[in-house]
Specification:
single chain, ABC transporter transmembrane region fold, Rossmann fold
Length: 593
Amino acid sequence: MSENLLINRAQMRKAHSALRLLVPLFRKYRARILVGFLALLGVDLLQLLIPRVIKSAVDSLQYGGATSGSLFRQGILIVGFATGIAACRFGWRYLVLGFSRMLERDLRNRMLARLVGLDRPFFNRRPAGEIMALTSNDLTAVQMACGIGLVSCVDAIMMTGAAIGFMVYIHPKLTLLALAPMPILALLTGLLTAVLHKRFSRVQEQFSRLTEFSRSTLGAIRLIKAYNQEVSQTGYFDKMGRDYVRNNLRLAIVQGALFPFSTMIANFSLLLVVYFGGNLTISGTISIGDFVAFMSYLFLMTWPMMAIGWVTTLFQRGITSLDRINRILVEEPVVREPTAPLPMPLGNLLSLRNLTFGHIPGSAPVLRRINLEIKPGLTGIVGKTGAGKTTLCQLLARIYPVADNQYYWGGIEVNRLGLAEVRERIAYVPQDTLLFSDTIGANIGFGLPDATQEEIEKAAELAAIHDEIVNFENGYQTRVGEKGVLLSGGQRQRIALARALLTDRPVVIIDDGLSAVDTDTEHRIIANFRKWLPGRICIMVSHRVAPIMAADEIVVLENGEITDRGSHLDLLESNRFYRTIHDHQMSIGGAEN
């Protein structure tokens, strides 16, 4: 019992924290919501007046006071009320349900703004499929709760309160009898709510895993076909789907229990009123008109009573999803802006002093005691797979956090400089080439949206891809497909390189960005670089010696440490690892020639 109480308290704290997200949005659209609920109040009041008209008509018929004219007037009055109900119902639907869509839009925008502000450590922990589920399924659950769920709740409260008032006016004791089953419904709802929350959380988590599996499967479809794994992937997805259905069915048991019990209790109330109210009418305590009106008010209460289960389900789903969304919105980037950033220095000089870094706190560091000064010119980085080359590039690009007093830009500690200002001076070409499902021109111009066609073509020429682009049927307007699937690996790399060069930033980091490019094209790119490079820093990671042979300095990384540095000729003499890979690659190149 105490454990359940603690769980409920924890859920209440989470719900309270999540609901605070909605307060600014309700405040922003308060006028719309107010008018919408006034229209809803109008619907309820007009619905409550109709039984009074019916009572008057029935009593006049019973006591012989009815005429054709009076009945016609009462009929016209009911039609007028019905017209008013229709108008007000349209009003609240347009205003309140429209508000729920605006809330959904604002929450989605806020989520995207937060997501694009988060850094690599967050996305290492959260798969893309889970985030996609949050922006679709979970957001829909919140929209439903704040739209039709909120309307149904308010409507039930207003309708129930007003109907009870009219029923008490007709006969207080009969009203107590009609409401006698209500505590049973309240108790049942309370017991099932905690179970509903737990099971819906499990369903949403399963949906996230399904979404992530679908995304990764479609992204790797060529690999799946190459390894002939269509059947196994489909089978695994089917198993996940069966688990998802099983969890949904367990959730449906709870949801399915609420509505029938609500209906049964409402009908039991109706039975009590028919029996005891009928006896009161027979004895003359209340008139036939009062009995008909009382029954009408009870019918008006039937929907709120039956809706309790449905509304509870909507709210539980909404709160659960809002809590999941809130966990994203309260995330903070690990790489943060300084409270009082210093102005960017004018000079280009990157300095690393005893830099040590590990992806997971407490684990063995990926980089150890890195001391390096990078001046304008070409700096090459080589090393075995897993030596820490990519991690070093990402630290230099401010993708991962760096401890204080380990990374300096122009002599100023980088954590004291504005994050956006530092990143605006770095063009980064990552190891995994990423292209958008758009045109070639749009992909090259991504980092500089207002770039002219002439500037885009100039960048493409620097990356030695312009001639190939113009040979496509649609030139720069050629669409590259999902992740650039319609292009070769070398073409994708050079388009990514052109995108970086177009921004014309003082620092360019190329992490093995020419690995899929043939030797002749590679030489053309390096020759173009030499003309473009003066005054800039270019850091090039490569598994091949050819692109960095002319570098001003080449750094050798082994097991996260700098083991050697120098020019190409210096390393050929002093470093066994560098000499080995050089001789091996040159011998292969000679054999190919």
